[in-house]
Amino acid sequence: MSQELTSTKCLAAAFGHHKCATTWINSICEQVCLDLGLKSGLVFDKSGFGGDLASYVRERKIDFLLYPNAHAQQVHNLRVEKLRAFHYVRDPRDIVVSAYFSHRNSHPTEAWPELVEYRQKLLSCSKDQGLFLELEFSSGLFQDMRSWRNRSGNGSIRLYKIEDMVSNPYQAFLEIFEFLGLLNQDYYSASSRLRFLLAQGSGKLERVMSSAVRLPRGLRTIPAERLLGIVHERNFSKLSGGRRRGEVDPSSHYRRGVHGDWLNHFSLEHLQFFKERYGDIVLQYGYENDPDWDRKYAPIIRDRDRSSP
Questions:
Q1: CA 238 to CA 261: how far, in whole Å?
Q2: Is 182 a member of any domain?
Q3: Whose CA is closest to 29, among 44, 14, 18?
Q4: DSSP single-letter state for residue 119
Q5: For the segment 147-197, what is each residue's pLDDT rounded down to a tens digit?
Q6: Could you give the 3-state DSSP secondary structure of residue 168?
Q7: Nearest to 101 by CA among 140, 135, 127
Q8: Structure pTM?
Q9: Residues 212-226, buried b or exposed e (16+ Cβ, 10 A)?
Q10: Alpha helices in the chain (DSSP H)
Q11: What share of the chain is helix, strand, coil (3-state, %, to 5)?
């Protein structure tokens, strides 16, 4: 493999998918990068890196790549020898419902002009019709999720479910950043705190001055206490303006924050449509184990509809 195509630089990365708490995860990773003086790069799709992710990382000297609409082939094309990354996913059925409310009510349109016309369609139809539109609209997202089948990353990419991360965010991010090689679990003494603050200042100066001088690798690890503070600063209650997970605000980008909400919104027709088009994905990521998983939910939906006024 040629030197031009292969980088020996160590690259950390977060690979995810739309409506998988990407804003939350990106904000935590970006703050860690600011603290450590690491250069982060955020790309949403091929248009953000011109179809050549390896060149984007190499030319911009990216230390930490954030790719929240990740296709496995693009990641494979990185050809980075020293990659440490985590790949985060969410129950695809919850993605549909979350995307419907977000695309209809709250998702920013500044960088996504196509959403303006699509939002008008969602606003002009019923929720049932809108969910069918969303099931079609999300096909590209689900193709990205499918692309990861049989791609383990040779142990360099670890899979996380958003549901597990949300239920125990402190433990999840400690595990993630330890796997990335960016966590310092030593006792956060006064001297180590001072050392970290000095490293922060040097990193900020390095970014301002565009200096070629790099900090020693030993100073590029985040103290566990600081990481836990960053996660705490970005918990659901604070991001949603004081609501607890499960309390609904349809107009908020952080609408509800619970697993299984799709059962409150799917009809039997939505269930069947999803099963036919995307049923394999819930099996791929272990959200279901039985190929006929839809059978156990149909009675629940029927009972829900009978009891509805």
A1: 21
A2: yes
A3: 14
A4: H
A5: 999 775 568 999 999 999 999 999 999 999 999 999 998 766 555 556 566
A6: coil
A7: 127
A8: 0.83
A9: eeebeeebbbbbbeb
A10: 22-36, 46-49, 53-59, 72-76, 92-101, 114-123, 127-137, 139-146, 162-167, 169-179, 190-209, 224-233, 236-239, 268-284, 294-307
A11: 55, 10, 35
Residues 6+ apart with CB under 8 A from 298: 268, 271
Say which CATH number the domain at 140 has: 3.40.50.300
- 216 in a domain, yes or no? yes
| Residue 1 placed within a domain | no
Q: Please give the single-letter amino acid code of residue 266.
A: F
Cβ atoms < 10 Å from Cβ of 195: 14
Report residue 20: phi and psi, to 5°: -115, 45
**End-to-end Cα, the chain, rounded Å:** 65
Q: Considering the domain boundaries, does residue 110 fall inside one? A: yes
Domain count, the chain: 1
Range of the domain at 302: 7-307
pLDDT digits (tens, 9 = 90+) for 53-106: 999 999 999 999 999 999 999 999 887 778 999 999 999 999 999 999 999 998
Among 27, 168, 144, 39, which Cα is nearest to 87's? Answer: 144
Q: What is the per-residue pLDDT for 7?
A: 46
Q: Can you give the length of the chain in residues?
A: 309
Distance between CA 54 and CA 61 in Å, rounded? 10
Q: How confident is the model at residue 210 (pLDDT cuts 50, 70, 90)?
A: very low
